[in-house]
Specification:
The protein has 118 residues and is mainly alpha-helical. It is built from five helices and two strands, in the order H-E-E-H-H-H-H.
C-alpha cells in the first residue's frame, strides 16, 4: 500500500465513541447534523419542543447506523451541557431541559449501546 492509500481523505475525520471505538465520519456532514440538532434544542419555539428528538429519529432512519446516530447525539449532549453551564441570559432552562429529556429518551430508544448493534 502506498502512503496515499493509507491516508484519510481531507473531508473525513475519526470520532471516538465512549467505549474507545473510532468511527470515520464525513466532517462537514457530521458537524452540520450536530449543529442542526443543537440549534433545535436551544431555540425551542412552541412548535419545536420535539423537533430535535424527531430529527434524531430521522437521522437514525436516514443514516442506517445506530453508531453514527450515537456519535451525533453524544456531541449534541456535550455541547448542550456546556451551554447550560454558561447560563446564557436568554436561556429558557425549563423548556430546554424538557426538550433535552425528550431528546435523550429518543436517543436511548433508537441508538442502542454500540455493543447491541449487529
Amino acid at each position: 500500500m502506498t502512503n496515499d492509500e493509507n491516508q484519510t481523505p481531507e473531508s473525513f475525520e475519526y470520532v471516538e465513541l465512549d467505549d474507545g471505538t473510532m468511527f470515520l465520519v464525513d466532517r462537514d456532514q457530521y458537524r452540520a447534523e450536530v449543529a442542526s440538532l443543537f440549534g433545535k434544542l436551544i431555540t425551542l419555539g412552541p412548535d419545536q419542543k420535539d423537533a430535535a428528538a424527531h430529527e434524531l429519529g430521522m437521522l437514525r432512519v436516514n443514516s442506517g447506523s445506530a453508531r453514527y446516530c450515537q456519535l451525533v447525539a453524544m456531541e449534541v449532549a456535550r455541547l448542550f451541557s456546556a451551554y447550560v453551564l454558561m447560563d446564557a441570559p436568554t436561556f429558557n432552562i425549563k423548556a430546554s431541559l424538557n426538550a433535552f429529556e425528550r431528546f435523550t429518551f429518543v436517543y436511548r430508544t433508537i441508538a442502542p449501546p454500540v455493543s447491541q448493534e449487529p
